[in-house]
Structure formats: structure tokens, C-alpha cells
Amino acid sequence: MTGFPHASAGQTIGLLGGSFDPPHAGHVHITKAALKRFGLDHVWWLVSPGNPLKQKGPAPLAERMQASRAMMQHPRVMVSDIEARLGTQFTAQTIAALRRRYPAVRFVWLMGADNLAQFHLWQDWRWIMDTVPVGVIARPGDRISARLSKTAKIYADARVSGRSAHILGRMQAPAWSFVNVPMSDQSSTAIRERGEW
Predict the structure, then answer these.
(1) Interatomic CA distance for residues 115 and 146, integer angstroms
(2) CATH class for domain 12-193?
């Protein structure tokens, strides 16, 4: 990919960030579910240079980009190294930079329920919640911890029901929705531990 992705004014774009170390069918599964359930025009995979919450660095970015493109083939999904291009390390920095670059685009931050459970550890997490709608997709074993998380409790009044999730991208933040989808129990950690990456 060269340069930055194209986005038209008024579009709603979901942002799925992560190390994708490696990408797997679970990522594809939640991406397709997010497109449908949150009424998104496109989803951008933000393959990060590194994860500040992880001690050990991921595989080289070029390898993860190549594997991600091979794994995620959908006309409305784009695999991107935007964070490396922007020089941002934290999600809040990335969102701020994208909002400056694409002022007429609506962004929705996407994450699995496992991330919601520890979202309060992210840098500027309240700013993220107050700035962009957040779409949360249930993953095995994380439904209860996510629903009881600090973020879920503090932003309980901003929760959008699953039935209304399709308008999430057009809502004013703070707004977040937790949707249950048929589960995929794949994880990058398990794939690495099996020596498959």
C-alpha cells in the first residue's frame, strides 16, 4: 500500500487496531460481523508497529502486513500500516491524527470484548470513549468480564442496545455497543504458542 487510504466525506469507517501477530480467522470473523452489525461502509485494519501493553515485540511489520492481506480479502476491508506512517504509538494518538486527516469521515473504534475488559489501562481511554463511538464484539470467555469492566460501568448510560447497533456510527460519542456474534475462539497467542507463526 502506498500513501493513505481513500475515504469519501460522510462515510462511516470502522477501525480495528492490533498487532495481528499473526492474523487469523477470528479477526476476519469479527471484521465481517462489525461491517454488518454496526452499519459500516468500510473497515480498516490498523496493523500496529508494536503494542505498548505487550512486553515482547511482534514479528516484523512487513510480515504481518503480508499475512494480513492474505487472510483478509474483502472489497470493503483495507489492511493498513497507517500507525507506522503517522508515527503514532497509542490508539488515542492514531484516532486524533485520522480525525485531522479525514475531517468529514465518521470513525468507529472496533474491539473484541477482551479489550473492553482492560480498556481502562489504555492511554487516554476516556478521551477515546468521549470522541468516537466504540463497537465491541463478544469473544469466547470475555462476555462477563467485559460487561463488568470499569469502562462498561462508567459509560453505562452511553451503551447502545444490540438492536440499535446499526446506527452506532452516526451517533455522537460517547456511544458504545456490545454485540454477540457466532463465536470464533482463535487467538494470535495460541497460534504463536503452537509454533504456527
Answers:
(1) 8
(2) alpha beta
Dist. CA 177–CA 135, nearest whole Å:
5
The whole-angstrom separation of Cα 123 and Cα 92 is 7
β-strand 77-80 against 42-47: which pairing, if any?
parallel
157 vs 142: CA distance, rounded Å: 21
Q: At what angle do helices 61-71 and 25-37 cross, to 10 degrees?
A: 60
- Residues 135, 178 contacting (CB under 8 angstroms): no
pTM over 0.85: yes
What pLDDT, on a 0 to 100 scale, did the predictor assign at position 144? 76
Measured torsion, CA atoms of residues 32, 36, 40, 43, in degrees rounded to the nearest 10: 0
- Residues ≥6 apart with Cβ < 8 Å to 119: 111, 125, 149, 150, 151
Q: What would the pLDDT profile of 15-49 be if each residue is shown by its tens digit?
A: 999 999 989 888 898 899 999 999 999 999 999 98
Q: Determine phi and psi for 11, rounding to 5 degrees.
A: -75, 155
pLDDT tens-place string over residues 40-58: 999 999 999 876 666 677 8
Burial (0-12, 13-18, 19+ Cβ within 10 Å), 85? middle
Q: Which residue has the higher pLDDT, 109 or 89?
A: 109
The three-state secondary structure class of 78 is: strand
Provide the 3-class DSSP secondary structure of residue 156. Answer: helix
CA–CA distance, 27 with 25 (Å, rounded to integer): 5
